[in-house]
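Anyone? Bumping this.
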Amino acid sequence: MWQITLDNYAKKITRGFDNFVDDFFNWVLDRKPTESLTELFERAKNIEGRLGEVSRATSVSKWLVRFANCAESEKISYYYYYKIKNYHLFTDTGVPVWRFLGSTKSMISKCFHYFYSTLIDTVAFQDAYINDYEGGAELKKQFRTYVGEKHPICPYCDHTRIDLDRFSSIDHFFPKAIHPLLSIHSNNLVLACSACNDRIKQAQVLIPALHPYIHEPHDYFQFYFSSNYQVIFARPKLPSHLDITKKYMISYQIEALYQKRLDILVKELSELRGNVRRAFRRYRNLSVKRWNCSSDEEVVKRMLEYHIKYRINKNYKLKGQKPMVKMIIDFYTDIQNRFLESESRFIVINVVGY
Ligand SMILES: [Zn+2]
């Protein structure tokens, strides 16, 4: 629920994927109309550079020939580049689906499935495309472990820890079953908890959608609470964010999930009240009052404001590192904006009695 920027090492891995696909299509588009199939096979055997290293050691050469020999090869590559260039727009519009022949569609699916499930875990690919890669052969696992350590909380739900690789999975933001060309595209690979991943994978992505590499969800919606703090609900920060907020809540079933975790706030609230109560008691025992307040409630209100501000700042520093930080920040924000009077009264009564 917090925007994520991958560091250079993680980006180096995913950039390797993009570079590979780029080399792949460049080679495919190089085919001359006069080139026979035999010549094509011959050329595929003698590819130079990093693409050659990979294609000779893996099944990539087979796919290169099949793509180059496909009647729709140009269209496929245009579609691929169109998709990666406009990727950031698709969270608003959805990914346009271009029509291809059935055989072409199946070729793309099988080939990109192979890239994701097998190729990127081969040493040949890693040696050629990921500079100074030091992880194990299982690159996907390495990616999960590395990114999970840096960003230990699921970016979708902000609830589940993903710093142990058995709880994390690589989500294809736009599902690879529907958009196979995005199977190893850097922006489309998001480390998430298995629950969120399965939830969005089963359904289509609801558009408009918030993407952890593109949006900061905190700018789009805020959690609010009923006056007894027993019910949580999300509201957009701007009227224009209504739809995207709704879709986000539905996609990851956030409100139902958070409703069950309000116990975290019970603890936060009792600490806040305890701190202010103690501060207020100390203040009442002072012979000279520092503050020029008209009433006890006014004093407590100022103390509450101070403690809330402190707690919000403290939690901001923990975003993405500790679960449920967004909910906690919004809880304090809601008290500050709507419940300051009632909280002050509650604390005064508690201390002074009326
Ligand atoms: Zn999650």
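Late reply, but here is one note on the structure posted above: The longest helix spans residues 325-352.
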